[in-house]
Structures are given as structure tokens and as C-alpha cells.
Amino acid sequence: MIVIIKSHTDxxxxxxxxxxxxxxxxxxxxxxxxLQSVVAAIGDETTHNSLESLNALPQVxxxxxxxxxxxxxxxxxxxxxxxxxxxxVKIGGGAPVVLMAGPCSVESExxxxxxxxxxxxxxxxxxxxxxxxPRTSPYEFQxxxxxxxxxxxxxxxxxxxxxxxxxxxxxxxxLVAETADxxxxxxxxxxxxxxxxxxxxxxxxxxLKRGLxxxxxEWLLGAEYILSxxxxxxxxxxxxxxxxxxxxxxxxxxxxxxxxxxxxxLPVIVDPSQGCGRADLVPALCAGAVxxxxxxxxxxxxxxxxxxxxxxxxxxxxxxxxxxxxSLQPLLRTVGRSA
Length: 339
Ligand code: PEP
Ligand code: MN
Prior knowledge:
339 residues; Alpha-Beta Plaits; TIM Barrel; four-stranded antiparallel beta sheet; binds phosphoenolpyruvate; binds manganese (II) ion
């Protein structure tokens, strides 16, 4: 059940609802918004008291039974889209489509700074770059770790770009959150629930990739874990799923983007780079993503893709990124999402 609280209710009013939910035998999970707050009541109504009595409280707008397994991420819980404010960069709602770009992995100071300046000049507002890399083989480049974070902080200082970087282990949550403006949860960890909880607890916005073989429902339930910890700054990221197709590394599922947009209030980001694994297809997939309503694009850019220490085949160089950003402009204007 979800208790929708009237807008402009003060904290004491919300706390009163939380206390009442508890008294009735449910676990309250509040999501406090600037305009609207909701309290999810976790518990089985068939064995607990009815929550209908909450309707009598003057600050309660209504009590909703959400039948879906995901509740807090659903449009029933919040009818207006979530807009995440990453230190001045807005993501979601009607905000301009956000370009997040940078290398797959942070490799060196020179590589990162060069890339940061180039993507900023082309219109990106967020710099991506993995410091901790989830590699299939233990013999492949694992990322620079802590030193990679230091370089990301340096790039942020030099360019003003916000940083999105992957959190690979719950043990590093506080460390990565010191540098990251957005914590990325990778596809391989999309159902590492303790990691989701640890990431949620940092209070940072979270970019949640879809798992390699994850159904939409499972993906949304992953986001539900984060919201139920009280962190509602979650953006979903479609990055392709495993199918029988071998022309592409993954099959980018744009239908899932449209579903996530229609079923949830969360911003949805598309990663065409992991999504197909081919640099030549990135521009077309970006256009498709914008057309189905994506709120942002996460694009791998490298000064010399052929020399990249990871994902070289799918990274685009500076000239192609600038060209891509430019070519998206008419489409962004058409959908009313240009900067
Ligand atoms: C990445 O963004 O470089 C990455 C490893 O992504 P994913 O988790 O989607 O494979
Ligand atoms: Mn990559």
C-alpha cells in the first residue's frame, strides 16, 4: 500500500503518518519529496490491520493499493516525473536530454583530461569513466581504482563536468561517493541487492544499469530496492540485453525504454555503446533513444579507440562525438528536449 501525502505537508505531518503506519503493524518506507511525499507501507493487508483508517488523517491525500510488485517507482506513487538535480544538471521530466560521455575506463591523466575537455566542448555535461572495472576475465585491465577516482576529481575540477562512475563493491561505497556525483551500478551487479542498498545509503543519485539478462520487472524491482531505502534519485539505464543475435554485442531494447517511461516516474538513460558494442551504430541508436523518450545518453568516447584498454570497438573518437552531438540537435528540438 502507498500513502500519498498532500503536497506542502510539513515534516511533523509526515512523521505523524509514519507513526500511524507503524502503529498499524506495517513497516513505513517514506520518500520525502520537495513537493510531494509518499509513504509505502510494507506488510500484508490480509494479516494486518486495514490501512484505510489513514484516510481520516487530514494530511493524507489517499491510500493506494498498488498491485504491481514495484510500488515506489510506479506512476501511482508519483504522478509527476522525477527530476534529478545533479548539482545544477537536471535529468528527467522536460529537462534537456543530458549527454554523459567519456571513456569506458579511466586510463591516464592525459587521456581523461583530453576527453573531458573534448566532450564538454561538444555539449556533454557529465563525464563518465570507470575507475573500478567489472571485467569478464581476471587478466584484463581492472581499472585504476582509487587513482582513477583521483583523476576523475581532477577532471571535474578542470572542466566543471559532473562525474558518473561505477561502484563495484559495497565496501567502496563511501570512497566512490566522495568523487562521484552519480553512482553507476553496472549490469553485472544489477541484482546485487546489498550493493544496491549500500549505494542507496550514500544518498547520491544512482544510475542503475539493466542486467545482462534482466526482465523489465526485475530491473524495476532493483530500482525499488533503492527507493525503499529512502533514495529516490534513481535513473534507469538500458544498456542492451543478451539475445541470440551475434551481429551486435547486446541487443539494445528500446521497447524497454518506452515501458520504463510509461510505467515509472524515473528518468531513463540509454547507453548505446554497451547496447550494441559497435562504434558505427552509436549515432543511429542515440537518435532512436531520443525518439522513444530517453532523458539522457551515456556514450563511450576515447581519444584513440583503437588503443583503449577496454571496449575499444564501441568507443567513438572526439570528432565523431562532436558530429553526433550536432546531428542530434534537430531531433532534440523536434521532441522539445534541446538545451
Ligand atoms: C560500462 O559502462 O563501461 C560498463 C561496464 O557497463 P555495463 O555494466 O552496462 O556493462
Ligand atoms: Mn564499457
